[in-house]
Design goal:
Radius of gyration of chain A: 25 Å
Distance between the termini of chain B: 77 Å
Number of strands of chain B: 0
Strand content of chain B: under 5%
Helix content of chain B: 55-70%
Number of strands of chain A: 5
Order of helices and strands of chain A: HHHHHHEHHEEEE
Oligomer: heterodimer
Largest interface: A-B, 71 and 75 residues
Largest sheet of chain B: none
Number of helices of chain B: 20
Strand order of the largest sheet of chain A: 2-1-3-5-4
Shape of chain A: elongated
Shape of chain B: globular
Chain lengths: 166, 493
């Protein structure tokens, strides 16, 4: 009975960590094992549709590293600085740049940036409450660094350049 | 540049006013423990901390929906809490002998463990900025809009066409909490609003502490219970990401399993104080679940329906219970079921009506659901492919199902009794898997892209519900001698 109980508890823990815990002897996680079974058994036309492309994000193994970062941030004073700084733009650098200009209520994003759907979405959400316009009366624009033209550069960030056009 | 740039926003330190607002927010949440517990349970039983905290979250969203302004909501919420404290104080003066009205020394270790856990969790949370897609583009974007407009309905701005890709129809409980945290500190950045995750975690952490320590009375294997519960709630595959990044899928899964555990207790011990407390607690948790995310609403309805079916006995003896219902011999059970439904449906219907009025049902998804389902069902390989994703994409589902089968066979073979209510999370999970299958059949996005982006995290809830069934089996069959009435044994179910 003791052995059975132990086996069941271990199996329970494996079901919880099936994506990251390797089965002893096999060197595979239960997740990889089910993938292999699937590869062997699935019909070709179904396999042709593709495989599971996304698994879980960062597993809990990341906790020791995150706690170490936390302690080091705390020692350096970075922790209190980032917690008490308003309008921090991470991870969208341009958001911080725009907020240095409180008079900018709305902005036009240039087509070469807007065609990148993901970046456009991040800008749209990241710079709120500054509104993104498709066209309008504002002189402020977000352009790529090579398309500044005769506009005045107000700020540069890794995602875009903030300019004021005549 | 200097002509254009005005004075830069100066870094602020946490001043007294911010600290005071934060204190009021925390008092508002924790003091509701007394109101929800003592007033609701009519002084007869001792309410639990997790119930009070969960009721606090629910009251936060109700107050915000009624007052619309987040400052007014905070004031209303705090007033309710203060009224609760006042009622407790006056009742304690009037009844010095009722132990339910006085602090319980045995709950102090629970409180200490809870405080330490919440502090550690908060520190981990706010060390990383809001970065990932759903967190940034849905939850914290909604929070930012609420924070800047100071209005849960954003003065009607939600309905703007540009916002339709941000899933406007998602409930606003979490965005409200994040906006309230930013409001308490007085500014928005990419770190501080993440503390709202800790507020959402409070009832779950309190539930864990209560359940782990309650096991001292009921089970021999305290360390095993503690380990299994801790692993199930906080160390499942992907917990490091889904519980700290600002995604809501992990929290939907955790509230689902906590609600199902409380529903199971409520059904199994319906005559005891524990059962009655668990019933109220389960309903509050289900109501929160329905206010976190649309998926939470679906799973809440499924769990409630399964619980009502189990309570009425329809799963075990369908014909007999239909006869009982038709002959009107189960009025009390039906009344209870009606109360169950009303309690959950209240906030849900309120939200649906309000979101319709505010134009939040605006979405980029089109109609023609039935046509899309039929087309996918008749395409060779598509149903199998979708089914495979639903079952295998999340690594917990298939192995947990296999273990559930082993445990059920073991229970039947060794004549150990599993009560009908023990099957609640398993049945709920299977029904939800069918719903997920139908959603992928009906999606108007590219199904491969849709499954690749979401099947893993959507599978968290059914996966953890099956894990929850296995947990019940291990604790109640392998590590505890359960004495139950033969009517509810597996042999008769």
């Amino acid at each position: 009975m003791f052995l059975f109980r132990t086996l069941i508890v271990v199996a329970f823990l494996y079901t919880l960590r099936s994506g990251t815990a390797k089965l002893p002897g096999l060197g595979l996680t239960p997740q990889q094992l089910s993938d292999k079974v699937w590869e062997k058994s699935a019909p070709e036309q179904v396999k042709a549709l593709g495989h599971f492309t996304e698994r879980f994000g960062t597993p809990a193994e990341g906790y020791p590293k995150r706690i170490a970062t936390l302690l080091s941030d705390f020692r350096d004073g970075a922790w209190t600085r980032k917690l008490s700084t308003p309008f921090l733009g991470e991870p969208l650098e341009i958001a911080s740049a725009i907020r240095k200009f409180p008079e900018i209520k709305s902005i036009i994003v240039a087509p070469d940036i807007a065609e990148n759907d993901e970046l456009y979405q991040r800008i749209f959400e990241g710079i709120y409450p500054t509104l993104v316009l498709e066209q309008g009366s504002t002189n402020f624009r977000l352009v790529s660094s090579s398309n500044v033209g005769n506009c005045q550069i107000l700020a540069k960030a890794k995602e875009a350049t903030l300019v004021q056009c005549p | 540049m200097s002509a254009i740039a005005k004075s830069l926003p100066k870094p602020r330190r946490l001043h007294l006013y911010s600290a005071l607002k934060l204190f009021i927010l925390l008092v508002g949440f924790t003091a509701l423990f007394y109101l929800s517990g003592v007033a609701t349970l009519r002084d007869e039983r001792r309410p639990t901390l997790s119930l009070g905290l969960a009721a606090g979250l629910l009251t936060a969203i109700i107050c915000a929906m009624l007052t619309t302004n987040i400052n007014a909501a905070l004031l209303a919420q705090t007033s309710i809490a203060m009224f609760g404290i006042y009622r407790l104080y006056t009742r304690r003066l009037g009844n010095r002998t009722n132990p339910a009205l006085h602090p319980n020394p045995s709950s102090w270790p629970q409180m200490a463990v809870f405080m330490v856990l919440i502090f550690i969790f908060s520190c981990i949370l706010i060390n990383d900025p809001i970065a990932d897609w759903d967190a940034r583009s849905i939850w914290f974007y909604h929070a930012k809009v609420i924070y800047y407009t100071k209005d849960i309905w954003a003065h009607g701005q939600w309905a703007e066409q540009a916002n339709i890709y941000t899933h406007l129809n998602y409930p606003k409980l979490f965005p409200l909490l994040a906006a309230q945290v930013a409001n308490a500190f007085g500014f928005w950045n990419e770190y501080i609003p993440k503390l709202a995750i800790a507020l959402l975690a409070c009832p779950i952490l309190a539930f864990f502490v209560e359940s782990a320590l309650k096991a001292q009375r009921n089970h021999r294997a305290i360390p095993v219970n503690f380990l299994l519960l801790f692993m199930m709630l906080f160390m499942f595959d992907g917990a490091g990401f889904y519980l700290t990044s600002g995604y809501m899928d992990g929290w939907v899964a955790l509230y689902s399993i906590c609600a199902s555990m409380m529903l199971t207790t409520a059904i199994q011990q319906h005559h005891s104080d524990d059962g009655r407390n668990s019933r109220i607690q389960a309903l509050v948790f289900l109501a929160i679940l329905s206010q976190i995310k649309q998926e939470g609403l679906i799973i809440a309805v499924i769990l409630l329906a399964v619980a009502i079916a189990v309570t009425l006995g329809t799963l075990a003896q369908p014909m007999q219970s239909i006869k009982r219902i038709s002959s009107g011999t189960t009025p009390k059970t039906l009344r209870t079921a009606a109360w169950y439904s009303l309690f959950l449906l209240g906030p849900v219907v309120a939200w649906l009506i309000a979101s319709h009025i505010q134009g939040l049902s605006l979405s980029h998804y089109s109609g023609n659901t039935l046509e899309r389902m039929t087309a996918k069902l008749t395409t060779s390989g598509q149903p199998t492919w979708i089914l495979a994703n639903v079952i295998f994409h999340n690594g917990m589902i298939f192995p947990s199902l296999a273990l559930a089968l082993v445990m059920t066979i073991h229970a039947a073979a060794t004549r150990k009794r599993l009560m009908t209510a023990d099957f609640l999370p398993l049945i709920g999970s299977l029904v939800y898997l069918v719903v997920i299958f139908c959603v992928y059949l009906a999606t108007n996005a590219d199904v491969n892209w849709h499954m690749a982006k979401s099947a893993g995290r959507v599978g968290l809830t059914p996966g953890l519900l099956i894990v929850c069934y296995n947990y019940h089996c291990i604790i109640n069959i392998l590590f505890a001698d359960r004495s139950i009435t033969p009517q509810s044994s597996i042999s008769q179910a």
